[in-house]
Amino acid sequence: MGHLSTLAGVVALTSMFVPEAAAQSCSGVTGRFQPKMGSGYKSSVLATGLRNPRHIVVDSAGNLLVAEGGTQGVRRLVLQEQGDIVCVQSNTQIASGSTNHGIALSADGKTLFTSNLASVTAYSYDAATGQVGQGKQIVTGMSFQGTHPTRAIATSKWSPDTILVARGSQSNVDTSTTQQSAARSMIKSFSISQGMQTAYNYNTGGEVLAWGLRNIVGMSEDPAFGGFWSVENQMDDIKLNGRDIHNDNPAERLSYHGVLNATENRYKGLNYGYPSCVPAWDPANVGVSGLLVGGLFKPDGVPDVAADECASNRMTGRLHFHAHTAPLDIKFNKNSTAAYIAFHGSWNRNPADGYRVMRVDFANGQPVHAVTSKTAQVPVMENGNISGCPNNCFRPVGLDFDQKGRLFVSSDTSGEIYVIYGA
């Protein structure tokens, strides 16, 4: 990897930017950067000084739980209203040890899940007091191999006993993932109750929801329609017929995986092409006749497939994004009229791209834009100047909404949490 509910009064949000779009600041909290906000949005800095904050989740009492990368564990930020904004009342560590990336809560809010590069751990959790119980591993066997240590996790309100766990490839082109038995570059589903009794081994247990997905780093369930979605970081440094086309290809991808508790989910178990087939962002640069945005093609140096295999027998994404912008999380507003995506930003293109939060509009459970659209993203929060990225800018990773429709955003490189408010 290159690695709000829509609020009342926001009727038409365009791609224009508001010069002065910062809300008032929390006392004693000063952010390092001044984000550029899309029309109708304001932001404030909620917290600074965190250590590599990755994914985040708001609990049933409105507190913010933050998975800090490495061996930092989970922090609980108790929030309080301060005028027109929200600020931190207290900040404590509630779970120690390696958390790496992923964090989720059960549908009833009483179980906290975290992931690291090897396993998924469950803790009993009391949102009122912040007390957690003894951790129990419910999924194991994902020992780190290669370049993608993140293990995105997500739970479901439509299927409350289900947890999804994504495991990425072990290299840029992981040839062994042409076989499901590799148990990489895929999303698997597991029964929480069964995992609490006897831990699953990721390699042999659970059910494959989707595979052929290079590196899924964010997943989310549509609250109104129940559909499950993922965002994917695609291949780096690709060539076609010896020609370097990596700067604008392949596309990053938003994929649909159906409703988890549906009697028949026709999306379950589908293959999305990796490592042999990748989606186009700039078809003209690829040079394959008839190729459209999101269409799959076979680059150099990947496992061979039949000539029509990419076009005919692999699943395409539902929307596609600029190459190497690294989407790391996706969250829906309360009424599912929009999904918000955190683009961590590129390392594998020149000039750099990403480093922003964007909105994709939805209707009836699907994006309003066509699969081939290149204009589906509406700016929400961006760096004013990305020349200092990745180390001297905010770099969004995790997203979550509270019940008031405020969108929280973590920035790992700057150690900050932002809040985005509607107009």
For this entry, give a set of tags:
5-stranded mixed beta sheet; 6-blade_b-propeller_TolB-like; 7-stranded antiparallel beta sheet; L-sorbosone dehydrogenase; disordered N terminus; Quinoprot_gluc/sorb_DH_b-prop; signal; Beta-prop_PDH; Neuraminidase; 423 residues; mainly beta; single chain; 39% strand
Sum this structure up briefly.
By secondary structure, the chain is mostly beta strands. 4% of the residues lie in helices and 39% in strands.
Regarding CATH, which class?
Mainly Beta
CATH architecture term: 6 Propeller
Name the overall outline: globular
Low-confidence stretches: 1-20
Can you tell me the CATH superfamily?
TolB, C-terminal domain
Percentage of residues in DSSP E strands: 35-45%
The third-level CATH topology is Neuraminidase
Most strands sheet:
7 strands, antiparallel
- Secondary structure category: mainly beta
* Fraction of residues in H or I helices: under 10%
| Rg, Cα atoms, Å | 20 Å
User: What's the number of structural domains?
Assistant: 1
Figure out the total of helices.
3
DSSP strand count: 33
State the separation between the terminal residues, measured CA to CA.
34 Å
Mean of the pLDDT scores?
92
Domain Pyrroloquinoline quinone-dependent pyranose dehydrogenase beta-propeller: 35-421
Pfam families: TrAA12 (PF22807)
Protein name: L-sorbosone dehydrogenase
Signal peptide: 1-23
